[in-house]
Specification:
The protein is an alpha/beta fold. It has 17 helices and 17 strands. It folds into two domains: about 1-215 and about 430-440, Aldehyde Dehydrogenase, Chain A, domain 1, CATH 3.40.605.10; about 215-415, 3-Layer(aba) Sandwich (Aldehyde Dehydrogenase, Chain A, domain 2). The relative contact order is 0.12.
Length: about 475
């Protein structure tokens, strides 16, 4: 059986390679026509695909998955539609340098079970915009909805004149086959969105890779914040698709002097603080003790389902479960990322303690990803931002929507969020079309007269220090 799967994967790779050669000859107008047609098809099927994703995975809220599909189509399309991705994309008369955009080649795109169709739609659009054939590799629990997303997009692309096999799907569900494709020399780039193990495998493949793993996003509520707004905003984010966005809040941090007020506000807005005994019960079903990884069975589940699994009773209509913790790390399982409506809650003695807690949480399992602050003191915002190792510092904004971009701010809308070198990524930016191009530079002859006007032999004179050299080098400038 595995032999057949490997043969199928090789056939897909060969088709993608041929498609890449043909696609590289397309002009900007043809590319833009294809992208527009695919965007329209994806957008028109946003509800159907959202329902399919929910029914197949059992994760999240289908209505919220519709909004994710809108972000992955409409907002992404709006952000890339006018971008030059073919031929000469810039020319500088002063330097004489022209930049030419070239496609990379076949891109292997891995999509997560939490955001299957929206991530597929997003990656398809940015790949087509840059003339890169794409091979979608869905999570084994979201194969059917991703196959439908690929079918819809491929039909639309072909209708607009795209090359054969510019969009394909590797729906084997086999880890071995996925690893084989990752390491194949025909793959130009891997875009891996998923867990830590998957991302590590992508980076170990020998091929270029952009990988995005966990977030474990800390949220600091400063004393200058509007507490009611901050709590409402956190709820808006953490309940969005039942907390399945990797940029969703994972821990709230407050100073002791405002802790009581913030707690009351959470309770007022239908959130529930777990007792110490209830925290232990939730820990047991939310986190796998041996690995400190979240239990897939609670990902994207509602409060009522999580409470039921944990054997606890919470008020009807509870939006988020909060666990007040005294520490961070293995002894405090809920200090890890939980993609569900569960939040850790920390009370720090003072401002410095609060910032240290935020940093420790980020380093635990989300370095380089995102962090959030609620404050109406710009100095506090800047102090916090300078100390955090996070690609996105989201201010007074729901982090799920804010980090993804395009709604609450002007960040590039993206379903793949770079985490910089801290997260072992090459960039901290929201990944979009510009990251899928090779840029050639035509460098015309422009004489550096300072260099050529230096007295012959000066560079070779070991007694000519910077003082003598500078007089000669800069004498005419």
């Amino acid at each position: 059986m595995n032999e057949l799967l490997f043969e199928k994967a090789k056939e897909i790779l060969e088709k993608a390679t041929i498609s890449a050669g043909i696609f590289s000859q397309y002009d900007q107008e043809s590319v833009d026509k294809i992208v527009e047609n695919v965007y329209k098809a994806g957008f028109d099927n946003r509800v159907k695909l959202a329902k399919m994703a929910y029914e197949e995975t059992g994760i999240g809220i289908w209505e919220h998955k519709v909004y994710k599909n809108v972000i992955g189509t409409l907002l992404v399309y709006e952000s890339i539609k006018d971008e030059k991705t073919v031929g000469v994309i810039s020319h500088n008369e002063i330097t004489g340098i022209s930049e030419i955009a070239q496609p990379l080649g076949p891109i292997f795109a891995i999509t997560p079970v939490t955001n299957p169709t929206s991530t597929a739609l997003f990656k398809i659009l940015i790949c087509l915009k840059t003339r890169n054939p794409i091979i979608i590799s869905p999570h084994r629990s979201s194969i059917k909805c991703c196959e439908e997303a690929v079918r819809i997009c491929y039909d639309a692309a072909m209708e607009a004149g795209a090359p054969d096999d510019c969009i394909q799907i590797l729906s084997t569900g086999s880890r071995e086959v996925t690893q084989m494709v990752m390491s194949d020399r025909q793959v130009a780039l891997i875009i891996a969105t998923g867990g830590t193990g998957l991302v590590k495998t992508a980076y170990s493949s020998g091929n270029p890779a952009i990988g995005v793993g966990p977030g474990n996003v800390p949220v600091f509520i400063d004393e200058s914040a509007d507490f009611a707004y901050a709590v409402s905003s956190i709820i808006t984010s953490k309940t969005f698709d039942n907390g399945t966005v990797c940029a969703s809040e994972q821990a709230v941090i407050v100073e002791k002097k405002i802790a009581g007020q913030v707690k009351k506000e959470f309770e007022k807005q239908n959130c529930y603080f777990l007792s110490p005994e209830e925290i232990k019960k939730v820990e047991e079903i939310a986190i796998v003790k041996e690995t400190s990884a979240m239990n897939p069975a609670i990902v994207g589940q509602s409060v009522s389902v999580i409470a039921g699994k944990a054997g606890i009773t919470v008020p009807e209509g509870t939006k988020i479960l909060l666990a007040e913790l005294k520490g961070i790390g293995k002894e405090y399982p809920l200090s890890n990322e939980v993609l569900a409506p569960v939040l850790a809650f920390y009370v720090a003695a003072d401002y410095n303690g609060a910032i240290k807690t935020a940093i420790d949480l980020n380093y635990l399992n989300g370095i380089g990803h995102s962090a959030c602050i609620y404050a109406n003191d710009n100095q506090r915002i800047m102090d916090f931002s300078l100390l955090m190792n996070a690609g996105r510092i989201v201010v007074n904004t729901p982090t799920s929507q804010g980090a993804v971009g395009g709604t609450y701010n002007m960040l590039a809308p993206s379903l793949t969020l770079g985490c910089g070198t801290g997260g072992k990524n090459i960039t901290t930016e929201n990944i979009t079309a510009k990251h899928l191009l090779n840029i050639q530079r035509i460098c015309r002859k422009k004489i550096n007269e300072k260099w050529f006007n230096v007295k012959p032999g000066l560079f070779l004179d070991e007694n000519a220090g910077t003082e003598i050299f500078n007089k000669e080098y800069y004498k005419n400038y």
